[in-house]
Amino acid sequence: MKYFPTVLIIFSMAFCASAQTYEIGGMIGGANYIGDVGNSAYVNPNSLAVGGIIKWNRSPRHSFRASLLVAQIKGDDIKSDESRRNQRAYKFKNTIKELSVGIEYTFWEFDVHSQKSISAPYLYTGLTAFSYNDLYKNNKNDIVSSGESISLAIPMVVGYKTSITRYVKLGLEIGARYTFTDNLDGSNPNKADADNDSLKFGNTQNDDWYVFSGVTLTFAFGRKPCYCNF
């Protein structure tokens, strides 16, 4: 009998852990990059980005979140408002494939089991791993690929979500990714002969960014959680 309280606590924790609520869905929108080629606007979606998203709601205020996103980014100096870039006339395209995991935090409670319409702004951050084409400038001043590379990024996302029905949730978000590479645009190549300064251009001291702007649509499922276990 003296072990009964301990057994009861263990069973309660197990029940709570299994009673969590999940969301799964998709995301679609536009992407742009910030770097040494083309337009330097921070939010300027000019190519398609699509992906999938899953959330594990651990409380009405925070969720563990994972997403897969595929986006094309591109830049064209002709479309820049800087005369120096206009004269240089470089352009490139690259494909980003990212896996991101982290925590989504709402500014106030967002209970996905609520019977009434609810909405809340949110923040998301975590860690992103992504693959991209390793670019370089050839002797014709064309930016071409020499293979594929993998790097990391820090996502910084702000969004607003609302319930369409009890089970369907819609979100609008803008998310910048600060990457740990300066070669999304071919300005600082990773080639073996990259020590040749003629292959480099722009500001090689700053890493590149890319931005996703779009919508998420998720479907909630699972029993109503008791939120008594972190």
Brief descriptors of the model:
single chain; 230 residues; mainly beta; Porin; eight-stranded antiparallel beta barrel; 2 helices; 9% helix; 53% strand; disordered N terminus
Q: Can you give a write-up of this model?
A:
There is one protein chain. This protein is 9% helix and 53% strand. With 230 residues, it is mainly β. The protein has an eight-stranded antiparallel beta barrel with strand order 1-2-3-4-5-6-7-8. The relative contact order is 0.23. The model is unreliable at 1-19 (pLDDT under 50).
Relative strand content: over 45%
Q: What's the CATH C level?
A: Mainly Beta
**N to C succession of SSEs:** HEEEHEEEEE
- Per DSSP, the total helix count is 2
Topology:
Blueprint: H1 4-18, E1 21-34, E2 47-57, E3 62-76, H2 83-88, E4 91-106, E5 119-137, E6 143-163, E7 168-179, E8 209-221
Antiparallel strand pairs: 1-2, 1-8, 2-3, 3-4, 4-5, 5-6, 6-7, 7-8
